[in-house]
Amino acid sequence: MAQRRTVVDIAAGVSSGALSASAVLEENLAAIGSREKEIHAFNLVTAERARERAAQIDTDVKAGKKVGRLAGVTIALKDNMCTRGVETTCSSKILAGWKPPYDATVVRRLADEGAVFVGKTNLDEFAMGSSTENSAFGPTRNPLDTSRVPGGSSGGSAAAVAAGFAAASFGSDTGGSIRQPAALCGLVGVKPTYGTVSRQGLIAFGSSLDQIGPFSSTVADSALLMEVIAGHDPLDSTSIPQPAPSLLNVLDQGVKGMRIGRITDMPEGSSPDVLARLEAAFEALRGAGAQIVDVKMPSMSFGLTAYYLVAPAEASSNLARFDGVRYGLRVDAKDLNAMYGATRAAGFGDEVKRRIMLGTYALSAGYYDAYYGKALKVRRLIADDFAKAYESCDAILTPTSPTVAFKFGDKTSNPLAMYLCDVFTIPTNLAGHAAMSVPFGTGEAGLPVGVQVLAPALGEAPMFRVAAELERNA
């Protein structure tokens, strides 16, 4: 395993001249050369672009120019974030070869602060999955045990950091797609409050659920990355009109006096090793001066059902634009409607087709109120339950994933079993709140266990305080 330098250390070292951005990059490229064929974290490695960028940063440092808060930090981007002139595929045949004419806002903000992009990472096609087995370009493997999945849908981004291919990476989280792979790969993964980070340039799956967030090796790294990417964006109509939160300055405040919620009616099905680590996390926070408070979330167990109506319905609408006319794959046929059908049949994989059909059915005449309308009511109940819980606590702990990383193929024949991987992460997306996964020890086969820290909307600061305390006690 390649040495994993932290984002904070790289930025400080490169800015001061103590580290060379080019040298940092070459370490990562060497790791990629050594293990990428085995792991398949990337759909595309942009080595030459990265070398040019790193060399320019080193030149600017020597000339005394301002280089930004992320000077020389190597970053991998999930391949559903638009990068100008660089192929962006969503790991789907239907977008193979497409090069966006613009950068996503998050990409631009990272670049403005001196980040060096090493490539675009593999994902479950259109971010639909929990194992990165649904990519049109082949699965990604967990660097900690290549017989197991890295989680999904942002599995390539998680694997890239876990394998030392980049100092940090970015994914998107619609129902747990940052937090779950972070847990399975032993990383910190953050799902910000909905609207805190711009979605402009993120190819949409579920527009009312999607959020971009970081993967990193430490809580401090994620705090710095969040400070860079968050904040209002006039190009995103759902962007919250307020500046990025200050997070680095709360990490040493501890949790003394904080109230941490324990859900007493939590969904069942977690493995004993995961529950043991969750209990140890509560004990660590209690030992650090926090008060553990019992809370109820009666609607939490319905989150999975509501999500798999809301998200596919939004996907059905969003993915209607991929029709072979404007961009991406086109399969010729005898007339326009036949071309639509042939293109989408050839371009979309099984899981994407499954969710489009489910969403289209839920939105169809005669079924809208019975399915989609009812799911929206459950979504409201979940938000109300969270609001009531947060009256008595500042943050809540749950498992991130019910189990450690599972073997390839274990759940592919049973979509419902795969969907259950997200039972603890989905409710936060439905509510639009903040959440993150923090590594907290190991479970079965010595594989990492992630503890999930939940916080109310715009509760990133207390959430990071709790996460930092867990990291100190892990």
Provide a compact summary of the structure.
This protein is α/β, with parallel strands linked by helices.
What structural class results from the helix and strand content?
Answer: alpha/beta
As a percent range, the share of helical residues equals: 25-40%
With strands numbered from the N-terminus, the spatial order across the biggest sheet is 1-3-2-4-6-5-10-11-9-7-8
How far the N terminus sits from the C terminus, by CA atoms, comes to: 21 Å
Low-pLDDT stretches are none
Give me the CATH architecture of the domain at 7-249, please: Alpha-Beta Complex
**SSE succession:** HHEHEHEHEHEEHEHEHHHHEHHEEH
CATH topology of the domain at 7-249: Amidase signature (AS) enzymes
Output the radius of gyration: 21 Å
Overall outline: globular
The chain-level mean pLDDT equals 97
- Characterize the largest beta sheet: strand count, sense, and whether it forms a barrel: 11 strands, mixed
- What is the H level of CATH, i.e. the homologous superfamily of the domain at 7-249? Amidase signature (AS) domain
CATH class of the domain at 7-249: Alpha Beta
| SS element count, helices | 15
Determine the strand fraction and express it as a percent band: 5-15%
Q: Could you give the count of β-strands?
A: 11
Keywords:
globular, 474 residues, Amidase signature (AS) enzymes, 11 strands, eleven-stranded mixed beta sheet, alpha/beta
Question: Overview of this structure, please?
Answer:
It contains 15 helices and eleven strands. The protein has a domain at 7-249: Amidase signature (AS) enzymes, CATH 3.90.1300. Helices cover 39% and strands 13% of the residues. It is globular and about 65 Å long. The protein has helices at residues 7-16, 21-39, 47-62, 105-112, 155-162, 179-185, 219-229, 272-287, 303-318, 336-347, 350-363, 369-389, 415-419, 426-431, 460-473; strands at 42-45, 74-78, 116-121, 168-173, 188-191, 211-216, 259-263, 291-295, 395-399, 434-442, 448-455. The chain is α/β, with parallel strands linked by helices and 474 residues long. The chain has an eleven-stranded mixed beta sheet, with helices on both faces.
